[in-house]
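Archive entry. Fields below.
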Amino acid sequence: MKTSHRYDRQSILPEIGETGQNRISTASVLCVGAGGLGCPALLYLAAAGIGHIGIIDFDTVDETNLQRQVLFTVDQIGQNKSEAAKERLSALNPDIEIQSYTEELTDKNAPEFFNQYDIIIDGTDNFATKFLINDVAVKTGKPFIYGSILGFDGQLAVFNHNNGPCYRCLFPEAPKGHIQNCAEAGVIGAVAGMVGTAQAMEALKLIINHKSLKPLTGKLWTIDMHSMENKTLSLSKNPECLMCSKSKDNIILQYSSPVCGLVSEMTAEQAQKNKMALLIDVRELKEWQSGHIEGARHIALSNLMQGHTPDLPTECEIILYCQKGPRGQQAAQILKGHGYLNINNMAGGYEAWLCCV
Ligand SMILES: [Zn+2]
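PREDICTED_STRUCTURE:
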């Protein structure tokens, strides 16, 4: 039988050795999203010989993805991303098992997927799915490697590992700007590449589990690639966390679709007819002061992004508006993350409202 030298360069490391390599080849990792973060993470995980890799992505390869989603080629445009990724990774390493899932991750299917893997990688670019990943990871007892990119900024953390904090423990302190909007946020491929690669490294550290390796459990690493200045912040577990302070059986998954833009939209005309709904103006204070819809409540998007949790009635319908529409969408995603499900965004915002008064 031919002996493979595929892993010689890593198994020679004293931190890995034969034991570490065996751990790698028997480990399983599920990557949620084969996008800017998932592609580099998956490349390094497959190359390192992770025995069982799962890829979940319902989206298809688009021309605009090629700038950063380095697994894909021009020939694969139009193909499902999880299948296209599997094709590429199988060519790279035919010795490992790769499973592709072409459906959307939901609160219904996620527990079953997560139960089949040791570690979850968050390769998503939207706030709602990160919450879903967190909540299901807590419920199923799996560590998840969080990654986030926006412009030149990258963030990385290992949540729900060794009794460390979960993503919901962090959220109240989340710095402005870590929330992504996949429709609007620009990104440089290399930034995604760096964070995705670091996610693969953190997964490998958990798997190899050598005493010299210190995963980012309870820590948030941030980097600004304008200057390469980086910081590692210590995170503490919130004893009153809505998710990880509960027993697993008491965790109820509440979730709405993660796709950007799927917060339901309402026209200004429909909003004006809906007399029972609560209108919330998410613009900044100065904009609110210069004019707003009578009877509306003011909660600035910037406050929501900084972790301010508003106390809103759950029994009535909520309609959010900003000046033109997109900030309302972002705010809606955040509020959905807090469990408010009856949320609509008013298309066209305050300007559209004024037009049809
Ligand atoms: Zn928590």
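CURATOR_NOTE: The pocket of zinc ion is lined by residues 165-166, 168-169, 238, 241, 243-244 (CB under 6 Å).
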